[in-house]
Amino acid sequence: MKIAVIQFPGSNCDQDALWSLRSDLGVEAEYVWHGERSLAGFDGAFIPGGFTYGDYLRCGAIAGQSQVMQAVREMADSGRPVLGACNGFQILCETGILPGALVQNIDQRFVCKTIHLRTENRDSAWTTKCPDVLPIPVAHGEGRFVADDETLRELNGDGRVAFRYCDEAGDLTEESNFNGSVESIAGVLNKRGNVLGMMPHPERVTSKKIGSEAGLPIISGFLSVLANA
Amino acid sequence: MVTVRVNVTLKPSLLDSAGRTVAKSLQDLSFDEVEDVRIGKTITLQVSEFDEGRVKAMCDKLLANPVIENYTFEVVD
């Protein structure tokens, strides 16, 4: 199994993504530059965080138009695993592979800290191994998830909300929803369930050697999704 | 050469957190009549010729995100 870690100008979580896959999950992983047209030979794609193209126009807008994203779309359509974290989530929303959009945090602040996620739906291959509540780092200024009412009804009805921001006990509070996301939504799935986008950074916490492996159950979703594909 | 001015705004249904902060600051400066502020962006295009359909396509494809934004455009001298 080989996962593509997509690199754009301004990606900055690409190394964390690569090594979480290679060292901690134990699968093959290679960088793929944004100008590539094909992801032949790869079984999945990780779109890492960063500030691609300086966040010009909108976060993820320009990266979303790049050559490689057409190949990522084809990979998503084929049922293989695609994970977007932070800017990767923004890029997936900009391309329409995932619904909704990410806008400026409600209090205008860039937030860099460890928060808690509540696993909403363990039926998904991405979340099947996740505990009820998991501590995960976030680092973003534009992570407030928004979607219209119809989209929200669909996401909730189909069990496509993967994670919500919560407190340590797993309760959804105004304070735990630090960026003001609608319904505290932190991560969503596509219709087929093989694409996950989330603002927090699971790739930063996949080894006890660096403090925590809370993100490993999410990263291991690459294996679970592929087993179902 | 034709100049086209594209105006992109957050949809009214969305909370504009930057606009809210600016409104508060104006009120603090005693501009009490300010009830709300919305911040958008202006994108000025220089095109060899104006084609309404093509400018609309530029807006739909890249310049605006229809999930969160509305846009208008006009040809200016």
CATH superfamily of chain B: Phosphoribosylformylglycinamidine synthase subunit PurS
Average residue pLDDT of chain B: 96
Oligomer: heterodimer
Q: List the uncertain runs of chain A.
A: none
* Top CATH class of chain A: Alpha Beta
- Give helix % range of chain A: 10-25%
The CATH topology label of chain A is Rossmann fold
Please indicate the percent range of residues of chain A in DSSP E strands (runs of 2 or more): 25-35%
The percent of residues in helical segments of chain B reads: 25-40%
Instruction: Describe the sheet with the most strands of chain B.
Output: 3 strands, antiparallel
Task: Give the end-to-end Cα distance of chain B, rounded to a whole number of Å.
Answer: 10 Å
General shape of chain B: elongated
Biggest interface goes to: A-B, 21 and 13 residues
CATH topological fold name of chain B: Mth169, Chain: A
Written overview of the protein:
The complex is a heterodimer of chains A (229) and B (77). In chain A, 23% of the residues lie in helices and 25% in strands. Chain A is α/β, with parallel strands linked by helices. Chain A has one domain (2-228): Class I glutamine amidotransferase (GATase) domain (Rossmann fold), CATH 3.40.50.880. The longest helix of chain A is centred in the first third of the chain and has 12 residues, at 14-25. The mean pLDDT of chain A is 97. In chain B, strands 2-1-3 form a three-stranded antiparallel beta sheet, with helices on one face. Chain B has a single domain, classed as Phosphoribosylformylglycinamidine synthase subunit PurS (Mth169, Chain: A), CATH 3.30.1280. With 77 residues, chain B is α+β, with helices and mostly antiparallel strands. The longest helix of chain B is centred in the first third of the chain and has 12 residues, at 17-28. Chain B has helices at 17-28, 52-63, and strands spanning 2-10, 41-47, 69-76. The A-B interface holds A 57-58, 61-62, 65, 93-94, 99-101, 103-108, 144, 146-148, 180 and B 10, 13-15, 17-18, 21, 61-63, 65, 67-68.
